[in-house]
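TICKET: design request
STATUS: open
ATTACHED STRUCTURE:
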């Protein structure tokens, strides 16, 4: 693996800003908004800002309108059923969005523009416009993750390769069609992991950054339970490579864990909310889930992101290489354990979503596994290089089309409910005659009155 110009140069810093702006603007301009699991995330953040707590009791009327979905009750108080980490991290940005909307609401032309696009008059605040605020903030988080991932890639390959691969991440994976469409709990987790990878690849050894990185890794569990896997594996990697210099990281991790438990006790009266219990275990469809999450027509990672097939080329050589070989082995463990964990989840299909949403957390690691392929392609010659480039470009274009449709065509999400709800008809993930990708690309779903087997 080569680096053709000095990482951290002025060009890299400028590209960081360009990637941040380009990804944010393009994702925020995409049409689909999937405020499903995250329906109360903005409300929780505003509750934290206004009242210093995460309960949703002040939104009783709104909760009733939504039939109290995605909430749980504890001692007379209502809370978002999903982990509170995202609401906590984004509270300052939600406050900023709320203040900005109040300001814009005083401008007549802006208010008229928004009211013309809504069915009923709305208040100019973050809660009333929570879906739009949610999508914009999710787009920003994914854009920031992309920009930092570019810096990570620059420590592994040249400028051109880094730019190509980060644009692949941003526009040819669920980062676009799932993560930036709403504040899923995957979003902040990905951001924490790429920040950790940046700490690792830059060779950071100063106590303060390592201490705060330890806090972030521990806190990631408060964002999404499966973040325990990359946090533990990357933490172990840093301890083994930094040795005694990793002490601040360990202290930060302990401080973060104590902080999470203390925060939960103060907020909910329990160390962990009920969401963390009874989610994983062996079930009859475990082996189907292992296969389905990779190759099923409607949830398979390699179907929706075919470029990742190329990462398998020369994988053994990559894992045994001197350049970043140990890091790749640890990342391989992360991806493997994440795949198994998805299969242990009885709802491994990811509910109403587009493609392999549950693989979103692992995307930064999977993208890095494309670096060795890109380097081999760049250094090859003759017919082999032409074939590798043709395969790479073709699969990039296919991936872009798939995720553009997922981010912009509502039929991509309608497919989950029509003609039969995916949650009660998991056979649909294997139904090659009714592809979710095809529904997204053509802009409408297939209608049917026939149940499988009739």
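STATUS: resolved
RESOLUTION: sequence designed for all positions
ATTACHED SEQUENCE:
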């Amino acid at each position: 693996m080569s680096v053709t110009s000095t990482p951290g140069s002025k060009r890299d810093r400028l590209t960081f800003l360009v990637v941040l702006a380009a990804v944010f603007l393009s994702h925020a301009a995409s049409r689909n908004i999937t405020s499903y699991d995250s329906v109360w995330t903005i409300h929780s953040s505003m509750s934290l800002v206004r009242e210093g707590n995460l309960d949703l009791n002040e939104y009783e009327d709104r909760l009733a309108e939504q039939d109290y979905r995605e909430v749980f009750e504890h001692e007379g108080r209502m809370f978002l059923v999903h982990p509170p980490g995202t609401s906590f991290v984004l509270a300052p940005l939600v406050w900023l969005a709320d203040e900005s909307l109040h300001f814009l609401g005083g401008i007549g032309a802006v208010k008229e523009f928004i009211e013309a696009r809504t069915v009923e008059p709305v208040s100019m605040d973050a809660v009333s416009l929570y879906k739009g605020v949610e999508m914009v903030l999710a787009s920003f988080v994914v854009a920031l993750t992309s920009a930092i991932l570019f810096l990570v890639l620059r420590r592994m390959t040249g400028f051109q390769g880094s730019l190509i691969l980060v644009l692949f991440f941003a526009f040819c994976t669920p980062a676009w069609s799932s993560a930036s469409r709403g504040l899923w709990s995957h979003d902040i987790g990905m951001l924490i992991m790429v920040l950790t990878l940046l700490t690792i690849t830059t060779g950071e050894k100063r106590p303060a950054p390592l201490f705060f990185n330890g806090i972030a890794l521990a806190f990631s569990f408060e964002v999404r339970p499966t973040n325990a896997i990359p946090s533990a594996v990357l933490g172990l990697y840093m301890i083994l490579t930094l040795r005694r210099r990793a002490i601040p990281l360990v202290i930060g991790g302990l401080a973060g864990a104590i902080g999470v438990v203390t925060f939960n006790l103060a907020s909910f009266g329990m160390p962990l909310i009920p969401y963390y219990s009874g989610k994983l275990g062996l079930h009859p469809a475990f082996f189907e889930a292992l296969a389905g999450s990779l190759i099923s027509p409607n949830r398979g990672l390699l179907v929706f992101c075919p470029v990742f097939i190329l990462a398998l080329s020369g994988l053994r050589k990559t894992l045994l290489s001197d350049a970043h070989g140990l890091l790749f082995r640890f990342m391989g463990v992360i991806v493997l354990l994440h795949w198994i964990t998805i299969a242990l989840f009885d709802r491994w299909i990811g509910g109403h979503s587009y493609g392999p949403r549950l693989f979103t957390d692992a995307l930064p690691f999977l993208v890095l596994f494309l670096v060795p392929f890109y380097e081999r392609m760049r250094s090859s010659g003759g017919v082999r290089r032409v074939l590798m480039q043709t395969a790479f470009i073709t699969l990039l274009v296919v991936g872009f089309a798939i995720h553009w449709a997922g981010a912009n065509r509502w039929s991509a999400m309608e497919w989950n409910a029509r003609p039969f709800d995916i949650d009660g008809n998991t056979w649909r993930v294997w139904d090659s005659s009714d592809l979710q990708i095809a529904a997204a690309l053509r802009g409408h779903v297939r209608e049917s009155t026939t149940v499988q087997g009739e």
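CLOSING REMARK: The chain is about 60% helix and 0% strand. The first strand starts at residue 71 and ends at 74.
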